[in-house]
């Protein structure tokens, strides 16, 4: 999978940018070139969806039953989700949200997001804490222009990577080679147990009262890359925003 969010739509952490990212002799690929590479590697069942000059989502279902994690794509009422992995308690979650028993993980995540956006007084981190399993997902809400991504707390899995391309776009993918092609050194694994919202920024849903801090990441060539992000145990946030029926996630970040 591949998600590209144009510069100006989102404000990714500045620490993802490496000062050495584009000093290499090899020219970084444009995001359009990387998208073409993704589609060329999946000529039969790969597809992409563009949203004006704001976002691009590309997806291909697994081509083999040997793929360790399932990939799912779903779109409902201008909300689009790419989901990787699985939820062990999906049946209970579907029942809790009044969804069909046959609904998959991507459908559930869209419904949970829409509930949070439109009417739920429950904080987003609490919803994510209720998810059991190994998972990663990316949501694009075309109605509000919001981006929401999260990954489970299993640090043994690198389900998603994110980076900043040469044109300033934020890229998220499960294929690190696609990220490197456009972002060069300005990338990192998406931090485990964390969520990112285009208005609120990056936070740990496991420890929502703690701030995140960037840690320098050095590659095998000794060059500084995009930072890893960890929980700052000595620094607390002022408050955790709650979204009620009078608000939605488009203004989530303004409440902190």
TrEMBL record:
It holds the Pfam family DUF3700. InterPro entries: DUF3700, Ntn_hydrolases_N, TSJT1-like. Residues 2-231 form the DUF3700 domain. It comes from the Eukaryota. Gene3D superfamilies: Glutamine Phosphoribosylpyrophosphate, subunit 1, domain 1. SUPFAM superfamilies: N-terminal nucleophile aminohydrolases (Ntn hydrolases). This is Aluminum induced protein with YGL and LRDR motif. It comes from Abeliophyllum distichum. The lineage of its organism: Eukaryota, Viridiplantae, Streptophyta, Embryophyta, Tracheophyta.
């Amino acid at each position: 999978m591949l998600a590209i969010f144009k510069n100006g739509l989102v404000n990714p952490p500045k620490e993802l940018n490496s000062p050495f990212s584009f000093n290499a002799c090899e020219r970084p690929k444009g995001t359009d070139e990387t998208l073409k590479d993704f589609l060329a590697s999946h000529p039969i069942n790969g597809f992409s969806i563009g949203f004006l000059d704001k976002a691009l989502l590309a997806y291909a279902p697994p081509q083999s039953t040997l793929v360790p994690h399932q990939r799912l794509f779903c779109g409902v009422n201008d909300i689009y989700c790419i989901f990787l992995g699985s939820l062990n308690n999906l049946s209970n979650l579907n029942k809790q949200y009044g969804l069909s028993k046959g609904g998959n993980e991507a459908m559930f995540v869209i419904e949970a997001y829409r509930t949070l956006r439109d009417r739920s007084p429950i904080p987003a981190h609490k919803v994510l804490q209720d998810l059991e399993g190994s998972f990663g997902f990316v949501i694009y809400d075309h109605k509000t222009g919001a981006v929401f991504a999260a990954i489970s707390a299993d640090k043994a899995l690198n389900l998603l990577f994110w980076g900043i391309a040469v044109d300033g776009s934020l890229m998220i993918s499960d294929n690190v080679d696609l990220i490197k092609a456009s972002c060069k050194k300005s990338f990192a694994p998406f931090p485990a147990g964390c969520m990112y919202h285009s208005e609120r920024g990056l936070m740990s849903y496991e420890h929502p009262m703690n701030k995140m801090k960037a840690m320098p990441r050095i590659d095998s060539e000794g060059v500084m890359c995009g930072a890893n992000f960890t929980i700052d145990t000595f620094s607390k946030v002022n408050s955790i925003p709650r979204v009620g029926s009078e608000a939605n996630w488009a203004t989530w970040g303004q409440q902190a």
